Amino acid sequence: PAHAPENLRRRKSRSSRRLPRPTAFPKTTHQIPAFFGFPIGSRVLCTAAGEIVLKFDITTVWRLVDHARNSKQSIASYKQRKPKPSLWLVGDSGVYLMSNGDPPIADTGRLIKKEDMARRLTAPAFGCDPEYNAFEDWWRLHNAIAQGNDFSITIPIGQFEDVLPECRSQIVVLIYEDKYRIVSDIDFEHI
């Protein structure tokens, strides 16, 4: 029978590459917190001004800044002619920071050779690590930043070096439209 319960179940997509349809971003700051619907572990996700909040572990960020500063060369990002030591804020599978230092640094701490396929060291934003967080938990944040598109934002390491000494356990990146700012977790508590 066509209406039997087993025939009404939703079938899984045959393509593992399909992503949810992009949702329109809310227009007012009052709609933003309700739009995200994140779990309690994510805590504050938007400021009163509507800035998207990304929190990163300072230990890993220090390692990335140190690598970018001390690397022999820096990898250029898109449309960059003379790369300078920077961290990239990347959104593809999750949202994370990574160094543009060359040779890259592996998550084990050693430098990666060209022929080596080791995993690069990254600092995932809290709640946005696909290894530990469900897709539904981090995708809405990724979608709010770049409307579902992958992105990479180059941030000079000087901006991190100015804030890192003031941090207790986290460094916070606040994003609003096409602008960002970096604050310590202590300063973030007073925003």
Order of strands across the main sheet: 6-4-3-7
Structure classification: alpha+beta
Our count of helices gives 6
- Inertia-based shape: globular
| Helical proportion, percent range | 10-25%
Number of DSSP-assigned strands: 9
> Could you list the spans in which at least 5 consecutive residues all have pLDDT below 50?
4-44
Mean pLDDT: 80
Element-by-element helix/strand order = HHEHEEEEEHEHEEH
Rg for CA atoms: 19 Å
Task: Classify the beta-strand content into a percent band.
Answer: 15-25%
Biggest beta sheet summary: 4 strands, antiparallel
Give the terminus-to-terminus CA distance.
Answer: 60 Å
Question: Can you characterise this structure?
Answer:
This protein is an alpha+beta fold and 191 residues long. The strands form 3 sheets. The chain has a 4-stranded antiparallel β-sheet. Strands 1-8-9 form a 3-stranded antiparallel β-sheet. The chain has a two-stranded antiparallel ribbon with strand order 2-5. It is globular. Helix content is 24%, strand content 23%. It starts with a helix and ends with a helix.
